[in-house]
Write a structure and sequence with these properties.
Elements (H helix, E strand, L loop, with lengths): L4 H14 L3 E2 L24 H4 L9 E9 L20 E9 L5 H15 L7 E6 L3 H11 L6 E4 L4 E3 L4 E12 L19 E14 L5 E14 H8 L9 H14 L7 H18 L8 H20 L10 H8 L4 H5 L1 H31 L5 E2 L1 H11 L3 H10 L3 E2 L1 H17 L17 H7 L9
Parallel strand pairs: 1-2, 4-5, 10-11
Antiparallel strand pairs: 2-3, 3-9, 4-7, 6-7, 7-8, 8-9
The structure holds adenosine-5'-triphosphate and magnesium ion (MG) (3 copies).
GO molecular function: alanine-tRNA ligase activity; aminoacyl-tRNA deacylase activity; ATP binding; tRNA binding; zinc ion binding
Keywords: Aminoacyl-tRNA synthetase, ATP-binding, Cytoplasm, Ligase, Metal-binding, Nucleotide-binding, Protein biosynthesis, RNA-binding, tRNA-binding, Zinc
Subcellular location: Cytoplasm
């Protein structure tokens, strides 16, 4: 039956509360006690120390709907947005947690009962995966739950979950929903699994280990449970649509975006990117991030500029992105009153960034289009990527995003060389020589440095 996103969120929290779980509010997108993580990327982040046995709570079962951003670090979906039906930079992850309380049998049963009884989903639409080593989970699914072996498979790394390169981790079991044969895609583990037909909706993780910086896995003090279900994905299922972008809460955002950039093309990929990005950008600003040249602030700047570029592509005549905050506050302000309280401030931050980037965007796009039009081969030279970055404030991933639309890629090695040369020139010139490495203040964001090392040098506009 049809349920709104808000109703689903409430039903989830209510169900787990009835099963003895404390309802815990979403924590900030900036992990409070964790220097290893760029942004909160899962519901378990605020409970990391509880899993590790370093923090005690008054409860041993909890449930939450956690705001998450996956736009950097180990879980990075920025490149997926607009290309898949299921990925956002910002999304809400609903979860239930056991801190040394129940383990596999209850965790699996809770998830199954919630989906098949509370949500009323047909059992034959649900597909299950477990870690190949997890005979216990396999037995529970097949014998206790009675899942059809046809819709069951054992996988490897997809069924081992980690928060980041270090921290709590363990084998998991995942539940997929079959959106029907008219959609392209194969079941989990098959060659076409990345299509949009079989969509992963829920991950139930059996937290058993802590991975330390040297790669060692030590058992946690008490086996625990951490689960995550994307609100937008289960909403798509409950609302009988095949893409997250067709659910209730995206409708007003897409409409507002279409009006703001004056396009009629409601199905455009760029419009979805904009509707996605206004959520991550607004929520990051709510949680205290501002656009800057490094670290988290640079990730925010990159997302804002990507959104601006997509608006520009659709023909936006001036600053438009900040006008979408109102629609977002109207849509999500009830669940997140901070959005309403901070609406003016979010708009100001975005508008300023739009005005700043407007000065160079057209010229940068002009240069890039020229290069693309006269390009031989399929690789945009590193020199161009560097010039766009250095002179026009184009983060390399933005240039890559444009390139992808022409089925081109970037010479990142050449880009890095050009960057290195500039560093040397600056040093040779003496005086105000900038050592970009010195400026790399990522506040200990270790996994982020590995992935985004290039863009992290940003010193632009
Ligand atoms: P996928 O394989 O689809 O990328 P995942 O395995 O990376 O998902 P998990 O880390 O297991 O995702 O997160 C738990 C749940 O959170 C997923 O089952 C999904 O419902 C939801 N989720 C994960 N990433 C996203 C995203 N980028 N946008 C929306 N929902 C997401
Ligand atoms: Mg993923
Ligand atoms: Mg997955
Ligand atoms: Mg998963």
């Amino acid at each position: 039956k049809y349920m709104t996103s808000a109703e689903i969120r409430q039903a989830f929290l209510d169900y787990f509360n009835q099963q003895g779980h404390e309802i815990v509010a979403s924590s900030s997108l900036i992990p409070g006690n964790d220097a290893t993580l760029l942004f909160t990327n899962a519901g378990m982040v605020q409970f990391k120390d509880v899993f590790l046995g370093e923090d005690k709570r008054s409860y041993s079962r909890a449930t939450s709907s956690q705001r998450c951003v996956r736009a950097g670090g180990k879980h990075n979906d920025l490149e997926n947005v607009g290309y898949t039906a299921r990925h956002h930079t910002f999304f809400e992850m609903m979860g239930n947690f056991s801190f040394g309380d129940y383990f596999k049998p209850d965790a699996i049963r809770f998830a199954w009962v919630f989906l098949t009884e509370v949500m009323g989903l047909p059992k034959d639409k649900l597909w299950i995966t477990v870690h190949h080593s997890d005979a216990e989970a396999e037995r529970i699914w097949k014998e206790d739950i009675g899942v059809d072996p046809e819709r069951f498979s054992k996988l490897d790394e997809d069924n081992f979950w980690s928060m980041g390169d270090t921290g709590p981790c363990g084998p998991c079991t995942e539940i997929f929903f079959d959106h029907g044969e008219e959609i392209f895609g194969g079941p989990p583990g098959s060659p076409d699994e990345d299509g949009d037909r079989y969509i992963e909706i829920w991950n139930v993780v059996f937290m058993q280990y802590n991975r330390t910086a040297d790669g060692q896995m030590t058992p946690l003090p008490r086996p625990s449970v951490d689960t995550g279900m994307g609100l937008e994905r289960i909403a798509a299922v409950m609302q009988n649509v095949h893409s997250n972008y067709e659910i209730d809460l995206f409708q007003s955002l897409l409409k507002a975006a279409a009006i703001a950039v004056q396009t009629q093309d409601m199905d455009s990929k760029s419009l979805r990117v904009i509707a996605d990005h206004i959520r991550s950008c607004s929520f990051l600003i709510v949680d205290g991030v501002t656009p800057s040249k490094e670290g988290r602030g640079y990730v925010l700047r990159r997302i804002i500029r990507r959104a601006i570029r997509h608006g520009n592509k659709l023909g936006a005549k001036g600053p438009f992105f900040h006008t979408l905050v109102a629609a977002l506050a109207a849509e999500m302000g009830e669940a997140y009153p901070e959005l309403i309280k901070m609406q003016d401030q979010i708009e100001r931050v975005l508008l300023k960034e739009e005005q700043q980037f407007a000065k160079t965007l057209d010229h940068g796009m002009g240069l890039l289009t020229e290069v693309i039009n006269s390009l031989e081969g399929s690789i945009i030279p590193g020199e161009t990527v560097f010039k766009l970055y250095d002179t026009y404030g184009f983060p390399a991933d933005l240039t890559a995003d444009v390139a992808r639309e022409y089925e081109l890629t970037l010479d990142m090695e050449g880009f890095e060389q050009a960057m290195q040369q500039q560093r040397e020139r600056a040093r040779a010139a003496g005086g105000f020589a900038v050592d970009y490495n010195d400026k790399l203040d990522l506040s200990g964001v270790t996994d982020f440095i590995g992935y985004d090392n290039l863009e992290a040098h940003a010193d632009v506009v």
